[in-house]
Design goal:
Number of strands: 15
Largest sheet: 8 strands, antiparallel
Strand order of the largest sheet: 4-9-3-10-11-14-15-8
Number of helices: 11
Strand content: 15-25%
Order of helices and strands: HHHHHHHHHHEEEEEEHEEEEEEEEE
Structural class: alpha+beta
Shape: globular
Oligomer: single chain
Helix content: 10-25%
Length: about 375
């Protein structure tokens, strides 16, 4: 810990990788004094090691960091400009921090220098009494960042409370991270095609993603007993902001070939068909970031955005659609050659996101990449 304290006083002389490696050696009883030192450093000057310490403290010991949220908020150099890539993460310590933070943050809504910071921290609390304080002129992107949409008289949550990880066989998708589990049964169909149903853009047979018992697993998002999600890997993300499909009462997408099919520039095979398990996400990974390692194949829960959030409006009722499924890159395709690996990269190492409107039975998908 002493070396980290020294780095906080001379932050420009040490690399980020050194800071990361040193933080792996911190003992539980050392985190509180380290957090206090990081806050002092951020009061004095811009300090990247201090930012890294606060971020790691929020991941590993949020119960300790929560005691210092007021002091953290008042530092001169913790909050970076909104355009900075890491700015969204700076408000994560206020996630689920409790109603006791509301009055303190409310007091800063009239402060021009800290007004935006207070709004974003209040949004992260995800409490009705905090939402009541959000000004009408608040940027909708800030509201979407916490997974809500603003409606006429209320805020509506756009993600389910019960996320699941998709667990593939090691021969299909491999990873050594603890979020990947060994399971004895994989009961749900994944990949392949939806025979008899066609892409509304190019006319090719729809590419099947996942069929699962929706009402059983995600009753707060979809009330259909079964839901089949599909897309077109040729067209998704290339020609329209979102590829939308209507579903019947059995949850199967219903899409006939267009009268004038479009010839896609990027031809892509369906995902290789397999069986997958859906395992509940532990509290440790309730919130996930777009980083290499953890299992980012998720059903439900809060999406891990590559870029800023992009929730579609339902083409039928115009309400913001709820997040349903995300798929990470490197999933194998049909015609997969193990000796010359070629998989789905959703643009370039990106993530695909799929959404649902339960009242209109419409799904929508798109991907994001860097």
């Amino acid at each position: 810990m002493n070396e980290l304290l020294a780095i906080l006083s001379e932050p420009r002389r040490r690399s980020g990788s050194l800071v990361e490696s040193l933080m792996q050696t911190i003992k539980a009883e050392e985190w509180e004094p380290l957090i206090r030192a990081a806050i002092v450093a951020l009061t004095i000057h811009v300090n990247e090691p201090a930012h890294r310490i606060i971020e790691q403290a929020n991941e590993q010991h949020p119960e300790i960091l929560s005691r210092y949220l007021k002091e953290l908020f008042l530092t001169n150099h913790y909050f970076l400009p909104s355009g900075y890539a890491g700015s969204r993460r700076m408000f994560y310590p206020w996630r689920d921090a409790g109603a006791e933070q509301i009055q303190f943050l409310k007091n800063h809504l009239e402060n021009d220098e800290r007004r935006e910071f207070a709004i974003r921290a209040l949004l992260e609390l995800r409490l009705p009494e905090a939402f009541e304080l959000i000004p009408l002129d608040t940027d909708p992107t800030f509201i979407h960042l916490v997974g809500f949409s603003r409606e006429i008289c209320s805020f509506r949550q756009l993600y389910s409370e019960k996320p699941y990880h998709l667990q593939f066989a090691k021969t299909y998708a491999t990873n050594s991270h603890e979020t990947w589990q060994e399971v004895t049964e994989r009961p749900y169909r994944f990949g392949g095609q939806v025979e008899g149903q066609h892409c509304p853009t190019c006319g090719d047979t729809l590419h099947h993603l996942l069929t699962f018992p929706a009402a059983e697993l995600l009753s707060d998002t979809c009330t259909l007993p079964s839901l089949t999600l599909a897309t077109c890997n040729h067209c998704l993300g290339w020609y329209e902001p979102f590829l939308c499909l209507r579903h019947n009462e059995q949850g199967i997408p219903q899409s006939s070939a267009p009268v004038k099919p479009f010839s896609p520039e990027f031809i892509c095979a369906p995902l290789l068909e397999t069986q997958v398990a859906l395992t509940p996400v532990s509290d440790r990974y309730r919130w996930q970031e777009w980083v290499y390692g953890p299992n980012l194949h998720r059903l439900g829960g809060h999406p891990a955005w590559v870029q800023l959030p992009e929730y579609p409006d339902c083409p039928e009722c115009q309400r913001t659609m709820m997040f349903l499924l995300q798929l990470d890159s490197e999933l194998p395709l049909i015609h997969h050659n193990p000796d010359d690996w070629s998989g789905m990269f959703w643009g370039s190492g990106g993530v695909a996101y799929f959404f649902w409107c339960d009242s209109c039975r419409i799904s929508a998908g798109r991907w994001q990449c860097t």
